[in-house]
Amino acid sequence: MKKQDFIKAVAKQADVSQATANDCFDAVVDTITKALKKGDKLTFVGFGTFSVKKRAARQGRNPRTGETIQIKAAKIPSFKAGKALKDAVN
């Protein structure tokens, strides 16, 4: 499902225009992004938890040359599905 398909489905289910659904979707994504950028953890009971994890620096290989390279440490966004979401999918 692409973003536009998702927006249409939300608009239909919420009985709002697609423009309103798109604005709401953009606001939700923006809010989650800002919270994660600050280092906050977002928990939606039954749906899941968004958080930021730290990945340590490590060595890797350039696949083209085989040369060893240093990969910098990084923060990565993470999502862990909640029980209700897992049960709904299974």
UniProtKB/TrEMBL annotation:
GO molecular function: DNA binding; identical protein binding; structural constituent of chromatin
Family note: Belongs to the bacterial histone-like protein family.
Biological process (GO), any one: chromosome condensation
GO CC entries: cytosol; DnaA-HU complex; HU-DNA complex
Source domain of life: Bacteria
InterPro entries: Hist_DNA-bd (IPR000119), Histone-like_DNA-bd_CS (IPR020816), IHF-like_DNA-bd_dom_sf (IPR010992)
Keywords, alphabetical: DNA condensation, DNA-binding
Signal peptide: none
Organism: Marinicella pacifica
Annotated function: Histone-like DNA-binding protein which is capable of wrapping DNA to stabilize it, and thus to prevent its denaturation under extreme environmental conditions.
Protein name, UniProt field: DNA-binding protein HU-beta
UniProt gene name: hup
Cross-referenced Pfam families: Bac_DNA_binding
Coiled-coil region(s): none
